[in-house]
Design brief:
about 250 residues, alpha+beta, four-stranded antiparallel beta sheet, 7 helices
Length: about 250
């Protein structure tokens, strides 16, 4: 895949474009969660491997299909949220966007301590960069210091898609707006894909994505067809469930 443009912008209209639609339109592959953040404690098995929320037939697909709820689009949830929650979600997104301005180039991310996790195994050119010290420093959600960054590297130049934060086992996963800023887990022991105050799933590692790319033009290397997408849910997971066709 190659990229053309990225325009950071806060989503105004929601809508999700399913993985099947992306594959049909441009042969694109999903951006999955980084495996180290979801795997049980013990020796690492690699990181940006087969996405746990990938299509049927890939590892973790059954759990994802069973636990990933069909939620209302982000703009509908945003409209139903309280003014305080709307402001909190907007502030978090703006703060993360500001922090990520320094990392448009992966080289800058590496200089700051982020390291790509097995880019040779990345699916669809999606690479997760992790700062291990930040991920283990005990701070769960600091927008100025994301635990990791997500790039699309399949094009002529890398595109920064957004950031992610990790809540280790035994810690709370704070959300300033629970109906909008939603953490998730791929742990089959958890009752649902998205964690809630009622089901916090503190026994597993949880992840929060913050997608800041705005609009991105992606081209399939197989078909040569370009598809322009926009982020419709800045806190959705996975990336393919967080985008819609650009107008």
């Amino acid at each position: 895949m190659t990229d053309a443009t990225t325009t950071p912008s806060r989503p105004r209209r929601a809508g999700r474009w399913a993985l099947a639609g992306i594959v049909a339109a441009g042969g694109l592959v999903a951006a999955g969660a980084v495996a180290w953040a979801e795997a049980p404690a013990g020796p690492e098995t690699g990181a940006a491997t087969v996405p746990p929320d990938g299509p049927a037939g890939t590892p973790g697909a059954r759990h994802h299909a069973r636990h990933h709820p069909d939620r209302a689009p982000y703009d509908e949830r945003y409209a139903a949220a309280s003014p305080g929650e709307q402001e909190a979600a907007d502030t978090l997104l703006a703060d993360v966007e500001a922090a990520l301005a320094a990392y448009a180039d992966p080289a800058a991310a590496e200089a700051a301590g982020y390291a790509p996790r097995r880019p040779d195994r990345a699916r669809g050119g999606v690479v997760h960069y992790v700062d291990r010290e930040l991920a283990r420093d005990g701070t769960v959600l600091d927008p100025a210091r994301p635990d990791g960054l997500v790039y699309h590297t399949g094009g002529e130049r890398p595109v920064l898609l957004g950031a992610f934060f990790v809540a280790p086992r035994g810690t709370a996963a704070p959300s300033p707006a629970p109906d909008l800023v939603t953490w998730h887990t791929h742990d089959p022991a958890c009752p649902a894909f998205f964690v809630t105050d009622a089901e916090p799933c503190t026994g597993s590692r949880r992840m929060l994505h913050v997608w800041t790319a705005g609009e991105v033009a992606l081209t399939s290397p197989r078909t040569g067809r370009t598809v322009e997408v926009r982020v419709a849910d800045p806190f959705g997971a996975p990336f393919t469930a967080s985008i819609a066709r650009a107008a």
